[in-house]
Amino acid sequence: MLAPGAGLTAFPDVPDDVRTIDLAWNGITHVPDRVAGLGSLEELRLDGNRLRGLPGLSGLTALRALHLDGNELSEVPACPPGLETLFLYGNRIERLPGDLGPRLRHLALGGNRLTSVPAALWKLTALESLNLAENALTEISPDIGGLTRLRMLDLGHNRLASIPPEVGDLPLTDYLYLSDNGFTDVPAALGRLDRLAYLNLTDNRLTRLPDALGSMTSLVELRLYNNRLEALPETVGGLGSLRELHLQGNRLTRLPASLAALTGLRVLDLRNNHLSELPVLPSGITHLDLRNNRLRELPDSLAALTGLRKLDLRWNKLYDDPPVLDLLRARGCVVLR
What we know:
Blueprint: E1 20-22, E2 43-45, E3 65-67, E4 85-87, E5 106-108, E6 129-131, E7 152-154, E8 175-177, E9 198-200, E10 221-223, E11 244-246, E12 267-269, E13 287-289, E14 310-312, H1 323-330, E15 334-336
Parallel strand pairs: 1-2, 2-3, 3-4, 4-5, 5-6, 6-7, 7-8, 8-9, 9-10, 10-11, 11-12, 12-13, 13-14, 14-15
């Protein structure tokens, strides 16, 4: 049964042997008890409706995926033990049950009203992705290190004051979101995440980064904007896979010389800092944002950025129009100043 966005306000009749029901983005307010007896049902998608409750689904032994994002649920529904995917993003849930199912691989609980999570959550060792963003969590247990299959973790937009070092024990590969919390530092243990591709630490209160950051050699994108960083560790030059580095909105007064070693870097965003000079930059950069710094002159080394397509210099006060800018414009680079 596939009828997403069909304008439905009531749950339609479905055959007893239905395997997939997709009724997302409708106006359904009630799920009939009959659904709890659909023994062949494998996937139920009810995102974006107006549900405040569901019948107990624990008897649906074939159910593997349950999608309930964007409803008005205040409790986690009773689920079958074989469930592998449970999405409850954007509801009104204040607490979690002690048993969420031992086979869960993907769990999304972001955008709710959680202030804590039960210890049982850290025993779901089959988890591959966990989203707890946009809640009111104040701490994460060191037991998180027991999630030995976790590839994706989102803890952004909470009220966390610290990152447990055990996060560095996780086998994360895809992403780690830690944005918009209250972190003032980062444990060196994060350097052990040498398979992680994306790290977001934006909108915190970071004043420094550990030297171990340079050990995260698989990072492709690193976002650190809107912190209080005055410098970067020299080890940043070890991030050989990096393609994007976002540092806007800090207090950087200088950049490490090792930055030049990031030959794969394509995007470097340095706007809204306190830079008065630039080191030699990676030659492969295509987009360089230097808005609102304290630059008075530019180094001739910018001429080596042969692939540069956009250079933004607005809200600096250069003494003159350096010849290097004419060279960049002649190559087709868009220069804004």
